[in-house]
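Quick bug: S-adenosyl-L-methionine-dependent methyltransferase output formatted oddly.
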Amino acid sequence: MRAVSRVAAAVLKPTPRVVKELEMSMASASFVGGTAFGVAYERAVESARDDALFVDPYASLLAGKQGNEFSTTFGHLDDPSKLWPRFHKDWTAVRTHFIDRRLEAFEGRQVVNLGAGFDTRPFRLDMPSDSVVWEVDRAEVNAVRHKFFELLGAKPTCRVVSVDLDFALDDLALQDFDTSRPTCWVAEGLLPWLDPQIQIKLIRELTSLSTPGSVVVLNFLDDSDGTSVRESGLDLHSFETADVTNLLATLGWTVIRAHHFGGAELHFGRFRDGYPECRLYSFVVATRDQ
Ligand SMILES: C[S@@+](CC[C@H](N)C(=O)[O-])C[C@H]1O[C@@H](n2cnc3c(N)ncnc32)[C@H](O)[C@@H]1O
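Here's what came back:
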């Protein structure tokens, strides 16, 4: 899969009526669902840079009026030294780009985005037309994303299947999913919002649906170095990296690699010189061989 060009950014000019309708449809999201606005806002900030790692032409509209506020809330998890005010925005840019690159490298045709929020990848990445992307989130969030693209008249480059479920209550059931085909599983900004036992259940479930050639890209919080999560006041849950890698190994995943913000592959020139690698913002990527 190849990254889309920046051309799309120039053509996205909805009428004032559409903008008004978008605002109305977005007004109802709950707090956790609403965090997707904050991520969209941070992607809009990145997209506006001359040296942007990616351009998400939808991000600014998706952020709505509340995105900036949610972004500030995430800031509670920022660098404690307070010398890097853009810390969380830079992190969102890096994590987005990291996942974009993983998807570009994936040769399969099934992608499942767990906790998809207001992700726009099927619309901004040049995904092969014969691929399918399942976007899993709560019904209220999926409804807003749906309405958004419908109002804009935007079309994805491949098939998109919306799956309404609550990971805390429901089992992972994906309509038209083919268990004989390799799948790339993405969990971006989702796991910290789930209780640890729900995170483990989800990883077990996706493993049971993964044939050889599948890849899992898990973004999680590793707060083993500090107290950021507790002090944030948010209902977030962290995991030690070793616990994630051990779980995946036990379940049969191989080539398991951990990446921390600031590490060689989770950097992209955005991590400030002199700062220690940040384990709080971590990924584990693994593949399934058999
Ligand atoms: C911070 S947002 C990230 C959204 C998206 N992955 C991104 O990076 O742009 C977290 C997402 O997880 C979803 N989420 C959190 N808890 C959930 C649950 N129990 N069931 C389904 N979705 C959940 C929220 O609705 C929200 O869209």
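Actually, after a second look the formatting is fine. The CA atoms of residues 245 and 256 lie 7 Å apart. Closing.
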